[in-house]
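hi got a favour to ask and not much time before my train. below you get a single protein, a line of residues and a line of whole numbers that encode the local backbone shape. could you go over both lines and see whether the tokens make sense for that sequence. a few lines back from you is plenty, here it is:
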Amino acid sequence: MSNSRAVRIAITAGEPAGIGPDLCAALKGRTNAELVIIADPKVLQARATALGLTTEFQPFDANTSAPISVLPLDTNAAVVAGELNSANSGYVLESISTAVSGCHDGLFDAMVTAPVHKGVINDAGIPFSGHTEYIAEQLNATPLMVLAADSLRVALVTTHLPLKDVAAAITHEAIVDSLSILNNDLKSKYQIESPHILVCGLNPHAGESGHLGHEEIDTIIPAIEYAKTLGINATGPLPADTLFTPRHLQNADAVLAMYHDQGLPVLKYAGFGKAVNITFGLPIIRTSVDHGTALDLAGSGQAEDGSLHAAIDLSISLARSSTISNAA
């Protein structure tokens, strides 16, 4: 980030038939950042009109400063709120790629993503497992999905896998890599000097000494012990049903869960509507909302905007922290 301008945040509006355009159309400017919405202005204007907003969408100009502006991309087909159209899948991916390249090239200091619909992108014949994986591929990086709600941060060793495939994906390398990325980014992004990470077991009761599975004994414990030799302060494996209690969490900076629905239900219960998805392991800052496209709410004025605001505020904080750290 240049010291001569405010933090500049790119915001992708996500699936055009979902609530992403609603949330972006209703955004208010911030005094501490420039917000650049990457979207089709026609879609934003139509959604603003449906919501009774009189928003004017100023075109983005990299050489001028504006609280909110729009970097225009054209959708490929007509957009109807609540009705998916696979013809617009290319537009959705282009908006993400535009934000990624802008962050990589220094045009933006961070990116925030509104929700996309994985199914309709795959229906278009484009293999797509999620934002996290797509952005990481663009940057040739190894990603780690982390969700945060207030002081609770939960990272995932595996993300969007069928449950039947999870155990095979829990490898020594995957755990050590996840712990290393989590440890490094807690230091660099959050300035936590010596992060303490709690690690979940895979099986009930963390395997109960092998009586309920051997993954803890064969894989997870050796991986944690190896991570400790790298200087990582990791504790576990702990039973997931008792790890998420105040007694354990009070001295922890993050939790590493083995799979998606082990860690995220707890976090979303604790902070739904204000939780933020952060991708660790990238050379850029990326945050996202913690919810889906909510097609049934698109254009209704009923969409909750708390998570998007939390994601924007966190991206601003991380961008400023990164700038301070780099200047130190």
